[in-house]
Amino acid sequence: MRFLKNVGFWLGLPIILVAVWWAATLGDVNPFVPKPGDLVVKLFQVWFGSDFLANVVPSLSRLLVGLAVSIVLGITLGILIGSWRWVRWLLEPALEFLRAVPPTVLIPVLLLVIGINDGMKITIIVLGCLWPILLNTISGVRSIDSVLADSARVYGIGGWARLRHLVLPGAAPQIMTGVRQSLSVGLILMIVSEMFATTDGIGFAIIGFQNSVSMPEMWSGILLLGLIGIALSVIFSQVQKRVLRWYEGLKEASNEG
User: Fold this and answer.
1) What is the DSSP string of 154-176?
2) In a domain, 1, yes or no
3) What angle do CA 144, 96, 127 make, to 5 degrees?
């Protein structure tokens, strides 16, 4: 019963929107607004046909690599900066400067420095996704319970044991918040990076359909991006439940108390 209720919450609004869309386009011949049925047909014909290996797989590969690099760098640097005040004091001006620079502005520079390749696109994704993870990790490390930190110091718990049993669990809720924020940022930057001097990817294909006035194909690409976003959100929710199982249990116990 609970499963059906959750499915209803997930599908309720999309079903309503599709019904309104279908009713609004009933009998309409506007070439710029496809009907829902035609759009679904184009979605499978274009993106799950010949374009799947040519454009979808390269885009997802770059996105996943960029997210993985951002998570490793963000958590590692966040722990270092959050754990030592002098490191934070030393790097804070540079971090504030770099955070203020939009990653998309650097695309022309990276095209010249790195070239027209996957490395440029992955770098753009990393430059955008790094900050939510890094800043949330720093905040999480700094907000660790001082009593627990002092107890670990008194009992001589340091090094890897301290990192594993105190720092990472204590900062994990905020780290996961940063990762969730980076998912949408990464998806946006994946598309933007593929719209400049490239030969494959979902963004490249969407721009091609737009230039050739293939509106149903272009709209199907936008629909595909929304479905990818939903899939990433569902996968992340499952990972988060496993990583923060202790945290969710603690919150439930607190609410019951």
Assistant:
1) HTT--HHHHIIIIIHHHHHHHHH
2) no
3) 90
Task: Please compute the mean of the pLDDT values over residues 103-125 and round it to a whole number.
Answer: 88
Residue percentage of the chain with pLDDT more than 70: 88
Mean pLDDT across 75-90: 89
User: What is the structure's pLDDT at 242?
Assistant: 87
Other Cβ atoms closer than 10 A to 136: 24
User: Is 232 a member of any domain?
Assistant: no
State how many domains the chain has. 1
**Residue predicted with more confidence, 35 or 247:** 35
To the nearest 10 degrees (0 to 180), the angle between helices 202-211 and 215-243 is 160
- Do 58 and 66 form a contact (C-beta atoms < 8 A)? no
Question: Which amino acid would we find at residue 217?
Answer: E
Q: To which H or E segment does residue 139 belong?
A: helix 118-142
pTM of this prediction?
0.87
Residue at 41 is within a domain: no
Task: Compute the mean pLDDT over every residue in the chain, rounded to the nearest whole number.
Answer: 85
Alpha-carbon distance values, 71 to 46, 63, 127, 229, 254 (Å): 32, 12, 11, 18, 30
**Which are the contacts of 162, defined by CB distance < 8 A and separation ≥ 6?**
152
So what's the pLDDT on residue 209?
92
**CA 149/CA 157 separation, integer angstroms:** 9
Does 100 reside within a domain?
A: yes
Q: Cβ(172)–Cβ(143) under 8 Å?
A: no
pLDDT, residue 6, reads 62
Domain of residue 146, CATH code: 1.10.3720.10
Domain containing 191: what range?
54-212
